[in-house]
Amino acid sequence: MKICPNTSPLLVLGRMGRLDLLGVPDELVLTNEVLKEVFEKRDDAAERVERLVVVSTRANPVIGHDVDPDHDLGLGERSVLALALATPADTLCILDDAAARAEARRLGLHFTGTLGLVLRARVDGRIALVVPLLRAAVAAGLYLDDGVLASAAESVGESWAE
After folding, report:
1. What would the pLDDT profile of 27-66 be if each residue is shown by its tens digit?
2. pLDDT digits over 88-112, tens only?
3. DSSP state, 141?
4. pLDDT: is 60 or 118 the higher one?
5. For the chain, what is the radius of gyration of the CA atoms?
6. What secondary structure does DSSP assign to 13-49, as a single string?
7. What is the separation of C-alpha 96 from the centre of its chain, rounded to a whole number of angstroms?
8. Between the CA of residue 50 and those of 4, 19, 34, 55, what are the distances in Å?
9. Helical H segments across the chain, by residue range
């Protein structure tokens, strides 16, 4: 399965130093629009992503009228959705933005977000605890309600409360 992250999850994971949570590098597909958005930041996260680009596949999908017809999303999000729409059974979109996730749902695409990646890593035994990573993700720019974070922590037997 191809993994195609949008800009926000890439930057959050990059700031955390946990791009490994995306999975196997040869399954990673980064669209040119997402890379452009990442490199505009020119911070430590962008530098970490730049090292990841060497082992990933680059893509420049054609964004058709069926993706985000109202143009509510950014070009990075639209490019991720267009790529996934071209290969829907073979691509997992990594999206944190609620509107992008709603569009992925409307298009019938597979998706998760940074939170889902962290939970999957815990279930797979690649990390010992979710809460420290979720706190790091929030500090790195992940915007999620405390109730959502508490439910996520509870789902793997941890407590969000300090």
Report:
1. 888 898 998 999 888 788 888 888 777 556 777 777 778 8
2. 788 999 999 999 999 999 999 999 9
3. T
4. 118
5. 15
6. HHHHT-GGGG--GGGBEEEHHHHHHHHHH-SHHHHHH
7. 6
8. 15, 11, 12, 10
9. 7-16, 32-41, 44-53, 75-86, 98-107, 114-123, 131-139, 146-155
Is the separation of the CB atoms in 21 and 116 below 8 Å?
no
Contacts 24+ apart (CB under 8 A), 41-50: 41/11, 43/15, 44/14, 44/15, 45/10, 45/11, 45/12, 45/13, 45/14, 45/15, 45/140, 46/11, 46/14, 48/14, 48/17, 48/19, 49/10, 49/11, 49/14, 49/19
108 — alpha (psi -120 to 50), left (phi > 0) or beta?
A: left
pLDDT at 55: 57
Cα–Cα distance, 46 to 40 (Å, whole number): 8
Higher pLDDT, 26 or 39: 39
Give me the phi and psi of 103, to 5 degrees please. Answer: -65, -40
Query: Average pLDDT for residues 133-142, to the nearest whole number?
Result: 95
